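Bug report

Summary: structure tokens for Amino acid permease differ between web form and batch submission.
Environment: batch mode, default settings.
Steps: 1) Submit the sequence below via batch. 2) Compare with the web form result.

Sequence submitted:
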Amino acid sequence: MARTTSAWRYAGEHAAGPAPSGNGLFRTKTVEQSIRDTEEPEHALKKSLSALDLTVFGVGVVIGTGIFVLTGKVAKETAGPATALAFVVAGVVCALAALCYAEFASTVPVAGSAYTFSYASLGELVAWIIGWDLVLEFALGTAVVAVGWSGYVRSLLDNAGWHLPDVLAGPDVADGFGFDILAFALVLVLTVILVLGMKLSARVTTVVVAVKIAVVLIVIIAGLFFIDTGNYSPFIPPAEPQPSGSGFDAPLVQLIFGYAPTNFGVMGIFTAASIVFFAFIGFDVVATAAEETKLPQRDMPRGILASLLICTVLYVAVSIVVTGMQHYTELSVSAPLADAFKAVGHPFYAGVISFGAAVGLTTVCMILLLGQTRVFFAMSRDGLLPRFFSKTHPRFHTPYRPTILLGVIIAVVAGVTSINELATLVNIGTLFAFVVVALGVIVLRRTRPDLHRAFRTPWVPLVPIASVAASVWLMLNLPAETWLRFAVWMVIGVVIYFAYGRSHSRVNRERA
């Protein structure tokens, strides 16, 4: 495979580089070694993505159920018309993390995202923990989204007069055992697409994202004609106490500090931001495709930041339109956009929105699956997972073995499991990754100031510290039960690391 990119030239100019540093659990893998590993023919991924492809991936994974569902829930229960400001606050929090991701992705253009970045800065144990965290985040996220997609498609089929038997509609619908055949089939089809190549995946995603954005723009433009400015009063409703949770259902911040968040009012905007933040989850998946990007030093920052900006603008516009069409106290929680058009006498747009939601979730599912397989591939190439999974397909140059394995497992999980209660694990996993990446930027600036950084996070260490603080605050607003489940998953990961990963690590063997 020809090495024509700046990533390969960088690797050649710094081929020697420093040896892996650190001792024991915190030994690091140098940036130079990470890049050299991508040159091994049997473990190399094909470089075919551009800045546009990355931006499309980012928009494709971020715009999902959040824009179609979350807007109504937050406006009605937490922020009112000021939901638009909550999206801005959440976008700023994500932007802080995005700046850190952009520096790492342009400096270490290797598959694995936060896992690879952590290995280069914070050490092997931290890298393993974040890699294990990302495996959970992306796998569970893929399954959750597949189940959500199945629900939208069943609704469209029902409207057309075609009804699936309850036993094939999933455990949430069936009385007794149920298998969600649609979610199962979706994950398998997307697995095949990912095996066939990144360029094909990019083309499919481009078409689907174009349809999704077109639907969102139709909602915004059509909705402008039905706005009643009286619905914006009051723009920031008076504050009221938020119902307190109890036991493990309560937010961790309440159990530790006794702080109870408020609904509405100025503080309600920040409470809402901690909720709508999760509508942005996924832009970090763009970083997992760094190794398959033609010019990663230039295009990774562009793709990450551009996709985040586009999604923030669309979210703000949709929230302004929907709260203008219908008073926030009357908004639907389950389908706010569709029901808002029904309320103004235009049910046709409700069908268009349902179609857009179903189409949109397809790309979310595929890109989450893409992210997980790349993290798994990077971990196996480093020896922390069996090297069997780090072989790429001789023709398609994709990590077909982990893609097939994980695709089948996730398809089965999506088919037989009701996992809505576990969805918050996706959120805590993402925020944890944000914290690690931000800390990694600070550490690598001190330990490797000599590295060429095509993109530099501004105002270091202030921006990374702000990113850590914002992410930790949102994590503290998650239920204590979510923290407990996350801790159990992490303990399982640590056991696997000491039982297998530590002794099979390539960095460990090279040092020996």
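Above is the batch result. After comparison, the two runs are identical; trailing whitespace caused the diff. The two ends are 31 Å apart (CA to CA). The beta strands are 240-241, 262-263.
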